[in-house]
Amino acid sequence: MVEKSIPPEMLKKMTFEQFQKECKHLSEMDDNDIKENFKDDPRAPEIIKEEYKRLADTVTDDEFNRQQQEVIFDTLKTEGNNLFREEKYEESLAKYHEALDQIKKMNGMELKEIRETIILNIALVYVKMNEPKKAIEKCETVKVLVIK
Q: Which CATH homologous superfamily contains domain 63-147?
């Protein structure tokens, strides 16, 4: 999947149609514009332009949407983890629940493990919030998922 990896910043703010237009635009820029727009990218302008041409030509709507859902999930999970570290447990809990909702929109075999991890994170938040019954309920949920 690395050969079709879409830059996360594009996934966060674009529709598939916008993505295709942007890739086409980037693939047609002159080398000086590429250097100006990709100052932190050490690759040669021709390589950057070819990458965006390939992305525009090969990435499907389904693949774009799948990667977009993964980026949204990863962002929510990371925000939840950061809030947990800051001891903002209520806010962390909300982000983890949003991440669980996001999982429902995704497809893939690895989702069971991801879901289990998020539920265990929620359990840990409940422990920190001194709500052991809710923490145990979440652990029981994971136990059932693992057995399935």
A: Tetratricopeptide repeat domain (1.25.40.10)
